[in-house]
Specification:
Helix content: 25-40%
Number of helices: 6
Strand order of the largest sheet: 3-2-1-4-5
Order of helices and strands: EHEHEHEHEHEHEEE
Distance between the termini: 49 Å
Strand content: 25-35%
Radius of gyration: 17 Å
Largest sheet: 5 strands, parallel
Oligomer: single chain
Number of strands: 9
């Protein structure tokens, strides 16, 4: 008897990086329908939190997938409250039933995501949960996801900024003790192409800077 999946619309918690992108791909493969992307920005509303991806590039990612993207400026203090408010609004306006997240095995993150979804009356889906981290990144690469490191901690160093995620790079990272997936926050990525994209984004990387023990690179849509 064939397996049937629920045809439910979802909002993707969209960082602009590889994990959120692959989680979306897996959710679609499970029969869920993508409706909208949600990204939480810095207070100034110009770049995303953690990844520091400019609004113009996030918007271009959404356009390439033919999906709207909601970008909400927020501080860490009101992050949770605004995230829940956004989920409630999307449930009312877009008929969202599920929130999709790209976390792999950090229980505190899953607990938070399930909590905010429950508060908003949504299901939480984590399609990558408990998968082997290295195997996941290799799957992402082989699936056609093209991603570049756009922020990393001081232990890694600025020389990794702008590097494409490849099997060779994963070997270098593991030799230095860095998790292949960056799940511990060692680095964050920008996806410029994926099976979900209609066309590849042309992005240039510029000036590098360090803020609170973390390296970032400027990004520009060319």
């Amino acid at each position: 008897m064939p397996i049937t999946y629920p045809m439910k619309k979802f909002v993707a918690s969209w960082s602009g990086g590889k994990d959120s992108c692959y989680a979306m791909m897996q959710a679609i493969a499970q029969g869920y329908i993508p409706a909208v992307l949600l990204n939480m920005m810095n207070e100034n509303g110009l770049v995303s939190r953690s990844h520091a991806i400019p609004k113009s590039i996030l918007r271009a990612q959404g356009a390439s997938m033919n999906l709207p993207i909601i970008m909400k400026p927020t501080s860490w203090e009101d992050y949770e409250q605004l995230f829940i408010k956004s989920l409630i609004e999307l449930k009312a306006t877009d008929g969202i039933a599920v929130g999709v997240f790209g976390d792999i095995d950090l229980q505190a993150h899953r607990d938070w995501e399930e909590k905010v979804c429950k508060t908003a009356g949504l299901e939480a889906s984590l399609p990558l949960w408990k998968r082997n981290r290295k195997e996941l990144v290799l799957e992402m690469i082989s699936s056609g996801i093209e991603a570049y490191i756009v922020s990393c901690n001081e232990a890694m160093g600025e020389e990794y900024l702008g590097e494409k995620i490849t099997e060779t790079l994963l070997g270098r990272l593991e030799e230095t003790g860095v998790d292949a997936c960056g799940e511990n926050g060692e680095y964050h990525t920008l996806v410029v192409n994926a099976p979900l994209f209609r066309k590849k984004l042309n992005v240039g990387f510029g000036i590098r800077s360090c803020y609170k023990n973390y390296w970032f690179t400027e990004m520009e849509l060319l």
